[in-house]
Each structure stands twice: as structure tokens, then as C-alpha cells.
# Entry
Amino acid sequence: MTSVSAITIPGFAEPHEGVRHFFGTRHGHALDDLGNVARVSFRQVHGTDVLILDRQVPPQDVVPGEWDAVVTNQPRVMLTIRTADCVPVLIHDPVRQVVAAIHAGWRGAVAEIVPKTIEVLRSRFGSDPPSLRMGIGPSAGSCCYEVDEPVLAPLRRTFPDWQRVVRKTDHNKARLDLRGLICAQAEAQGVSSPHIHSVGLCTICNPALFYSYRRDGVVNATMVSGIVLVP
# Structure
């Protein structure tokens, strides 16, 4: 598995459902066989702003501004995000045919970027949360992701069930289950638990597959994940 270029979750989204997706590794990513697809990129800043693309965009469109989530109902517009320990989250609404890509670090997750994106899908495109499918990609896992009070304090303020996703390791330190937090937030918004799928791999303790800022102490590179509606 050390040379795998991309990971997909069949239970999350199948090509016959009109959608293709991938979670990239340090060896590259997939979906080079789609032909004429517009690939959207933007600056990520660990915030909670959601970009809405409800029109066709030019190929290789660099969208101005700073965003950490993007949604579209446009076919052949590939939404991509870059991560190295943060959580890549992909969403597909097979009823409304809308997709979303979310970059969720601890700041964005604590500030509820995933619930805010789900609300945009509901209010702008009429998505019903129980119909949504969510795919959660490789990220820093609870096995390795130790955080301290600057992370724990805002988590306690915004997530009443915070003890569910932390395991104390030392005075004012704990291991954070960031993917578990995102799952809990999505379920609270009405997303059905069986519709939430996770790769379950930790970027920190899998150096042969993933880049990791926490492990290496520097951003050597990032992984690209993406989703696109296809006719």
C-alpha cells in the first residue's frame, strides 16, 4: 500500500451515482481520466467561510479570496482541497446532485465549519441532511494528535460533549479525535450515521503514505483530495 496514489470510499460515492472522488496520498492523486474538467483551487486559511459555485467556471480556475469549504451543483467542476494532518471532508447529496469539499483543521472544526457547510447545502440547494453522504479522509488521528489548552478551551466552549472526543494524557494535554468531532457535529445536523464513512488512517503515523506537519515539523508538501459531479 506504500505506493498508493489515491484512496476512495466505495460506500461513500460510486461513479454510477454521478460522482467521482479521491483522497490523495504523498504519491499523487487520481481522476486524471475525466477529460474536460474544471479544477477549482483557492487559498485555505483555517476559517469557516464557504464558497458557493453555482455556475460553470473556466479550467484551472483560481478563485480569489480565502475559503475553507466549497460547494457546487455544477457538473465537471472538480472541487479540491489540500491537507497535511487537517481533515479532508467530502460531501455528496445524491438527491439534489450537489457536492462539497471541506478543509477542517482543529480551528475550523471547533468553529463548526462542517455544520456551516451543511447549512449552506440545505439553505442554498435544498439538501435534506439525512440524504447527505459524507466521506472523511486521512488526517491526524487520535492515536497521535496531542493538543493542549489553546485547543481544549475553545472545544469545551463550543462542544458540550467534548469529553467524547478527548483522552487526557498529561496535565492540560489530551489526544484529540478530530474525525470523531466532525462525525458528531454532522450527526447533530441530521446526517445519518450509516452515511458517514471514514478512511480511518492517521497521517502522522503513516509516513510512507502521507505528509504530516505534526510529524515533520514543517510543511514539506500537502495531499490533494477532490470530488466532482459527472454526467
